[in-house]
Specification:
There is one protein chain. This protein has 396 residues and is of the alpha/beta class. Helix content is 32%, strand content 25%. It is built from nine helices and 25 strands. The strands form eight sheets. A five-stranded parallel beta sheet has the order 5-2-1-9-21, with helices on one face. A five-stranded parallel beta sheet has the order 11-18-12-13-14. The protein starts with 5 loop residues before the first strand and ends with a helix. Bound molecules: flavin-adenine dinucleotide. Flavin-adenine dinucleotide binds next to helix 1, strand 2, helix 5 and helix 8.
């Protein structure tokens, strides 16, 4: 039997891919066996998904075969769905078998947090994977086709729950796409409503107020109606109940209101807050020196004691450090603490418009939109170099 330590990475999202790629660089021949397990044989660019969801971009720009991103001589790729993690037995149970590990990296991402709003799980659509995005895209067009046959007004109302970054980016794409669809389906666009409902007192909570105002003005001009400071109380098959009981008729409700950790983690017995594990400075689960948790399933606090929001940016940085700390663990060297390096924040507002904060600089409009493209291209370059940038990049 091989005495080479076995490292298993579950999830090939931002965190998992960066861990696998960095391990390829860090580890010497036969220093460890590395296995990467993912539900699909492709990696998807979650930060793009609002576009194919609305139909403003193709799905192909958002997914990349994992085999193109890793060196299969150094990392074994297993296409499989994790059903259970059993830390006591150092075992991962898949739909069709199981695997043991010496070291585990959990990068399974997050799940929609519905805050117990009745009906949200059942009736709302969510932007979380290639498959969920296909559904949203088809659903939107289908509603317009149905409207031409049954005339039901709710078919022309599109409610987006949550005006955080993903909610705002999605309504912006909808506002770009629906006028085109309206023309294609012979529907007066003025009859279509895009309604963004947010419980917090502002859109883009926590973001620069001047840029929030700019973003809302741009989107209002594109036809978005904001209902800010109004919680959704219930989601129904044909709409939502908001505030004091008002019903907004809508056959399409897309929920973007929150993220919690992957449910498998709580099931595995880790102590969680909203499904996320408060990891130590070295990215390990408390009490488990053999388990690293990164990305949306992990919880870390900034120096002011506030939790970092779950973003691709942090997942990527954690992925790189996780690989370095795994190598250090194998070599019985000192581990490094995670220090977040904030590269800035950009929110797309659809074609040619965005808002961004980089350092202390506030950027808006066309320049911010170019910045968003650069951020996207930079990610492609990091994981796949120039060939991937040329293949999957969106330049216009
Ligand atoms: C619409 C949208 C826009 C966003 N925009 C931005 C942005 O502009 N900037 C930013 O920094 N962040 C953005 N985010 C957040 C960002 O996408 C996440 O924080 C990031 O994807 C988290 O990375 P991760 O590695 O934790 O998980 P993910 O990237 O979600 O990857 C998880 C992986 O695990 C796999 N998986 C899950 N369950 C299983 C299972 N049971 N078995 C096997 N495999 C499984 C999934 O298929 C996936 O490949 C956005 C999110 C959304 C939804």
């Amino acid at each position: 039997m091989s005495s080479i330590p076995k490292i298993v990475i579950v999830g090939a999202g931002y965190g998992g891919i960066l861990t696998a790629q960095q391990l390829q660089k860090e580890l010497k021949h036969n220093e460890a066996d590395v296995t990467l397990i993912n539900r699909h044989d492709y990696h998807y660019i979650t930060t793009h998904l609002h576009m194919p969801a609305a139909g403003t971009d193709t799905i192909e720009h958002s997914r990349i075969p994992i085999a193109q991103l890793i060196d299969e001589f150094k990392v074994d790729l297993v296409k499989g769905t994790v059903k259970e993690i059993i830390p006591k037995e150092k075992k991962i149970v898949l739909e069709d078998g199981s695997l043991s590990y010496d070291y585990l990296v959990i990068g399974l991402g997050g799940e929609p947090e519905t805050f117990g709003i009745p009906g949200m799980d059942k009736f709302a659509l969510t932007i979380r994977s290639i498959n969920s995005v296909r559904l949203i895209r088809e659903h939107i067009e289908y509603q317009l086709a149905l409207y031409k046959n049954d005339g039901k007004p709710g078919r022309l109302n599109f409610v987006v729950g949550g005006a955080g970054f993903s909610g705002i980016e999605f309504v912006a794409e909808l506002a770009d796409r629906l006028p085109q669809l309206a023309r294609a389906y012979d529907i007066d666009f003025n009859r279509i409503q895009i309604i963004n409902v947010e419980a917090a007192p502002t859109a883009l909570p926590g973001f620069d107020p001047e840029l929030v105002e700019y973003a809302m003005d741009v989107l209002k001009r594109k036809g978005v109606t904001f209902r800010i400071g109004i919680p959704i109380k219930e989601c129904l098959q044909d709409g939502v109940i908001v505030g004091e009981g008002e019903k907004i008729e809508a056959c399409t409700v897309v929920w973007t209101g929150g993220i919690r950790g992957n449910g498998l983690i709580e099931k595995a017995g880790f102590e969680v807050m909203r499904g996320r594990v408060k990891i130590d400075d070295f990215l390990r689960a408390p009490g488990h020196d053999d388990i690293f948790i990164i990305g949306d399933s992990s919880l870390m606090f900034n120096p002011e004691g506030r939790p970092y929001p779950p973003t691709a940016q942090i997942a990527m940085q954690q992925g790189v450090l996780c690989a370095k700390n795994l190598a250090a663990t194998l070599r019985k060297k000192e581990l490094h603490k995670f220090v977040f390096s904030n590269k800035g924040t950009v929110a797309s507002l659809g074609k040619g418009e965005a808002v961004a904060v980089v350092g202390k600089r506030k950027i808006k409009g066309w320049v911010a939109a170019q910045l968003k493209k650069i951020v996207d291209l930079r990610y492609l370059f990091i994981i796949g170099g120039i060939p991937l940038v040329l293949k999957k990049g969106r330049f216009f």
